[in-house]
Amino acid sequence: METVLKRRDFLRRTAFAGAAGLTAVGAQGWAWRSPAQAAARSPRLIVILLRGAADGLDIVVPYRESNYYAARPTIAIAKPGEKDGAIDLDGQFGLHPSLAPLMAQWTAGNLAFVQATGLKDATRSHFQAQDYLESGTARLTGSGWMNRLIGVLPANSATQAMSVGNSMPLIFTGPQIVASMAFGKAGNHQIQIDRPQIQTVFDQLYAQDQRLSQIYKEGREARDILLKSLNDERIAASKDAPAPDQFETSARYLAQLMSGDAATQVAFMEIGGWDSHVNQRGILSRQLKPLGTGLAALAEELGSVYEDTAIVVMSEFGRTVAENGNGGSDHGYGNAIWLLGGAIKGKQLYGEWPSLEDTALHESRDLAITTDFRDVLMSLLGEHFSLNAEALSQVFPGYQQSKTLRLV
Amino acid sequence: MLVNADQKVTHVLDRLSFGARPGDRTALSKIGIDSYIQSQVKPKSETEPNALAERLSELSTLSMSPLALFNQAAFPRNPSEEKKKQISKWRQKIIKEAEQSKLMWALESPYQLREMMVDFWFNHFNVFAQKDLTLMWVGNYEQSAIRQHALGKFRDLLGATAKHPAMLFYLDNWRNTDPNSAGAKGPFKGLNENYARELMELHTLGVEGGYSQTDVEILAKTLTGWSVVHNVQPSTDESGFVFAADRHDSSAKTFLDQPLIGQGVEEGDRALDLLAAHPATAQHISYKLAQFFVADEPPVALVSQLAKRFLVTKGDIAQTLLALFESDEFWNLSHYQRKFRTPYQYMLSMVRAMGVSAPSQEVLTRIGSALNQLGMPLYRCQAPNGYAQTEAAWLSPDVMMRRVSIAIATANIVRGSKPDPTALLVTLGNQVTAEARELINRAPEPLQASLMLGSPSMMYR
Question: Is the confidence metric ipTM above 0.85 for this complex?
Answer without folding.
Answer: yes
